[in-house]
Please model this.
Amino acid sequence: MGSKTGFRVGVADPIIAARPAADTFTRASYLGAVANRADSFWVPDHLNQLFPRSLWKPEYCGSTRVVPTLDATMEPWTMLGHIAARNRVGRMRLGVGVTDTGRRNPAVTAQAAATLHLLTRGRAILGIGPGEREGNEPYGVDWSRPVARFEEAMATIRALWDSGGELVNRDSPYFPLRNALFALPPYKGRWPEIWVAAHGPRMLRAAGRYGDAYFPGFAHRPKDFAQRLEVVRTAASDAGRDPIAILPALMIFVVTGRSRDDVDAALESEMVKSVALNASDEVFGRHGAEHPLGPGFAGAQDILPHDMDEETALSHVAAVPPSLMREIVLNGTPDEVIEQAALWRDCGVRYMVVVNISVMQRNLRKGLASIQPFNQIVRRLKKL
Model:
């Protein structure tokens, strides 16, 4: 069936500095993706993680023994360049999932993506979105109008890429170009694909105007994806673009194990459950609960988890309904995960990028044992 639907699969790694070498886990993750014939390998762009560091302790998470600090996140373009040098065998596409338009000037992003595209002979993907508060506000970046900034950044990247090496002048409240020059060439006439992480109505329209792929992360449901994809495609059509050419993609977390009992224990682990704090109050409401961070909480884009003390973080995590966890991550044995993934496929997804967060559970041995079923999932997703 894979050949008929052309379902494709990517693997993402959190690129957190580990022991004994900083890239020990990332290298294992990359080699696993090669061995399981993934179509692409992805790294995030964060200065730190979206989870409470106060819970990164041995009693809550076994991986602390090999990853001393949760927030030691490495820089994505440097890491992708490092991986590109090893990527001669696998020849996977390499993507940033996703960079943001707050911290990085769009000219610098345009340059990084174009460079990677040339070095990989046309296999770079620029995943991009408005970013999150935690990677911007603490570092002095204005967080008042992230979507307006995103729209201007996308228009800037397109203007530079389309300039043919001529001087560019463009008015913009955020990124005005005055005799700006961008002379890097595309690879064989093609720039990297732009995959847009979008959720809200205005971002969905921007994805339709600028994106080659619609690429949301968690947390929503397959039927929400289908509805949002319609909005993206309508916006593409309104912008004079081919709506069907926009690739429906998704990044999603996976919690797996050798048995359902192992998976349920992992889903109950404090660090794994803390992922749910990145869901919005609307998602909590569906499960008859209030978001621990208050009514109207928007989710990942607004979370600031770094100053949450242990007691607060534990009480927040205790308020997460088990049914919510089962909604926001693919979870179960490989058979169960494939069944859940098929629901996304049936709602339009054609490219799924998966992240194994089973390693964040309490039990290190079971966390590491999850790698085998996760690899099996990657291989079987290819056949969806």
Summary: The CA atoms of residues 81 and 116 lie 7 Å apart. The domain at 8-382 is CATH 3.20.20.30 (TIM Barrel). The chain has a mean pLDDT of 94.
